[in-house]
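Project outcomes to date are best conveyed with an example. Our students and postdoctoral researchers have been running inverse folding experiments weekly, and each run begins with a structure described purely in tokens. The record below, which covers 170 residues, was selected by the lab manager from last quarter's runs and is presented without edits.
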């Protein structure tokens, strides 16, 4: 499968590649940015490169670098198709790229791709209840809070709950 480049005014999503590890280590290696991730911040670029390789190789994964113009990766967004018609989005931005609207633009592009060419009927997000920035991003993107899954993740922070959010094609 060849992943398309997606673009809108001020944002270009291109297929993520291993050489994006150096840029994305700014996110994955940052304690604050990685706080609500499933594991602790990465120790080095090689750990980020291995994580990218594993993510790209996942069955049903559609993974893009978030850029302003198709160049340097300022973040990563992935749409994981879990089963027919259903996907889940995950996103991370480098600290210097937050507050510019790139995450919102990337989210809209991936939602349009999921409901369009992939013919999904549901896109979900699994968010830590204390991650206010992500909760706000997905609410602005038209997602609705569906519920709280108690004790859903065992992370570097301990046992964590999950806020499940989704957007339906209709």
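After processing, the design step wrote out the following sequence:
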């Amino acid at each position: 499968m060849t992943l398309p480049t997606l673009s809108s005014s001020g944002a270009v999503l291109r297929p993520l590649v291993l050489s994006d590890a150096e840029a994305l280590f700014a996110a994955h290696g940052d304690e604050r940015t990685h706080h609500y991730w499933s594991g602790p911040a990465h120790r080095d670029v090689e750990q980020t490169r291995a994580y990218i390789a594993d993510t790209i190789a996942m069955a049903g994964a559609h993974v893009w670098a978030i850029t302003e113009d198709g160049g340097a990766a300022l973040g990563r967004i992935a749409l994981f198709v879990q089963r027919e018609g259903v996907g889940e989005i995950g996103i991370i931005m480098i600290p210097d790229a937050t507050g510019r609207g790139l995450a919102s633009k990337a989210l809209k592009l991936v939602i349009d791709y999921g409901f369009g060419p992939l013919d999904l009927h549901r896109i979900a997000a699994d968010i830590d209840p204390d991650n206010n920035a992500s909760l706000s991003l997905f609410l602005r993107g038209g997602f609705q809070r569906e519920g709280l899954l108690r004790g859903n993740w065992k992370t570097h922070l301990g046992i964590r709950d999950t806020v499940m959010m989704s957007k339906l094609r209709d």
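Residues 102-115 form the longest helix (14 residues). The domain at 6-124 is CATH 3.40.630.30 (Aminopeptidase). The training component of this project remains on track.
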